[in-house]
Amino acid sequence: MMSTIRVPTTTLTAQSGGTTAVGGTSVAVAAVLSGAFLAALVTAVITIWLARRKTREEERNRLRSAFAEAFATYQAYKEFPYAIRRRRVDAPGEERVRLSEALRSVQADLVYHVVWTVIESEQVGKAFAELVKQVRATAGTAMHEAWNAPASNTDSAMNIPPSLVDLTELTKHETIYIDAVRAHLRRLAPWWAR
């Protein structure tokens, strides 16, 4: 007597739309590969990319403004030798107080910007700290001399020659700071904008 062994077989059936299903998996594959799903996926990727790009650009703009404010504070300090020489002659006591208070405020702002730039970028911070160190030495000496000189009391005395106040030494430190800011902002730019 012979025995028969039966082997189970899988039946393939054709569904409407011309797809073949093995145990219902084609429904899931069809959903994943559907045009609507792909469109949603592409839209999500583009939306995320645009949001990230906008965030980076906003960050660069924030830094650009903050680094410019730091430089503006430096410039305000740099102008004090001229302001002191041009102080009012008729109210020396009031001018001392006015200029001293203004200088105190700018010095406090300088300290803030030195700390802020170091926290934001080590390279930019070092360059700005060196710029501030140099302006304090150069313009500080010029301020000392300006306080010891008589106040300007004529229109022609308002023109202060470089022989009295020479701050050209600061130009190279200004360039170093600006270059450090540019390099930092360039690193934050997208690769195609570099």
State the end-to-end CA separation.
Answer: 85 Å
Order of helices and strands: EEHHHHHH
Strand order, largest beta sheet: 1-2
Shape: rod-shaped
Counting DSSP E segments of at least 2 residues, the number of strands comes to: 2
SS element count, helices: 6
* Low-confidence segments: none
Work out the helicity level: 55-70%
Radius of gyration: 35 Å
Mean pLDDT across residues: 84
Q: What structural class do the secondary elements suggest?
A: mainly alpha
Q: How many strands, which pairing sense, and closed or not: the largest β-sheet?
A: 2 strands, antiparallel
Beta-strand residue fraction: under 5%
Features:
194 residues, two-stranded antiparallel sheet, 2 strands
Outline of this structure?
This protein has helices at 25-32, 35-78, 80-85, 92-120, 122-148, 171-188, and strands at 13-14, 20-21. The chain has 194 residues and is mainly α. The radius of gyration is 35 Å and the shape is rod-shaped.
Structural overview:
There is one protein chain. With about 190 residues, this protein is mainly α. It has helices spanning about 25-30, 35-80, 80-85, 90-120, 120-150, 170-190; strands at about 15, 20. It has a two-stranded antiparallel sheet. A hairpin with a 5-residue loop joins strand 1 (about 15) and strand 2. Helix 2 (about 35-80) packs antiparallel against helix 4, helix 2 runs parallel beside helix 5 and helix 5 packs antiparallel against helix 6. The longest helix is centred in the N-terminal third of the chain and has 44 residues, at about 35-80. The N and C termini lie far apart (about 85 Å).
